[in-house]
# Entry
Amino acid sequence: MMTLFAICFFVGLALTLLNTFFGGDFFEFHADHGSAHGHGGPSFFNLSSILASLTVFGGIGFILNKVGMTSSLLILLIAIGSGIFMGWLFFLLFAKVIYKHDDSMKESDFNLSGQLGKLSVPIHGTGTGEMMFVMQGTTRTISARSEQGESIPKGAKVLILQMNKGVATVTRFTE
# Structure
């Protein structure tokens, strides 16, 4: 039993140090929802929580064995409980402090189809113009081309149908 606890402690400690110094997002367990990457909130099964649980499980089990506790079942239960508790604390730290400030962009932030805006530079026939739109509270501009090749005057409301090499294909929006 001592060997199991020692291995868990040292493997958990070594991986924690590697995760700390080299980062570990490639080890995270993410769930995909449809085609977008899942960012609904942090998972309890993140690398930091798992490594904290493993390290504390091994450390507590090893210490309890060394101080002379004789009941293997009691040592195992205390070690498991301590590991789960520490993993939960790391999850709370991750969820309430670290993830709270994570403003990573999502794939949907780049999909402009269906975005409504208005032309700031008119589109003349098959040429390009420029449209303005508001996204996440910021006014942005993008080159725009008419879907049917028709001219659209400045100030007209347009709807983005698709993007092609950074140029929006738009159609006039009618209410």
Observations:
- The helical segments are 2-22, 47-66, 72-98.
- The radius of gyration is 27 Å.
- Confidence is low (pLDDT under 50) at residues 26-38.
- The beta strands are 32-33, 36-37, 116-121, 128-135, 138-146, 157-164, 167-172.
